[in-house]
Amino acid sequence: MYGDPAAIRKILTELGDTWAVVGLSNNQQRAAYGVARVLQRFGKRVVPVHPKAETVHGEPGYASLEEIPFEVDVVDVFVNSELAGPVADQAVAVGAAAVWFQLGVIDEAAFDRTREAGLTMVMDRCPAIEIPAL
Sheet containing 18-22: which strands, arranged edge to edge? Predict the structure, then answer.
């Protein structure tokens, strides 16, 4: 259900190529850093969203989704499950088309709210694992 193959395919191939990666910093030891690089290799624009607002992989960062001055298609969430729900709500508020909760990021209520708002959503999956299989 949370990793519906049709939703995964739709997000990765149809909904747009601008991905806001929440939790992405220059810490190369964090999963977000490597996943963002894979997304870039597959033609996605990766926008770092982190309180430090660092430039990562050549893209300027922003402290929050609300600060991004252009539309984002997908919000990829690398924060703890306890913090993920508010990020999903922000994704709805900024007009994203989809939300992707990374492996281990689970919030069933946020999943339901986000889908009810009309966004495509995947939870507890990794796009860097899924995209090469398409």
Answer: 45-49, 18-22, 74-77, 98-101, 120-122
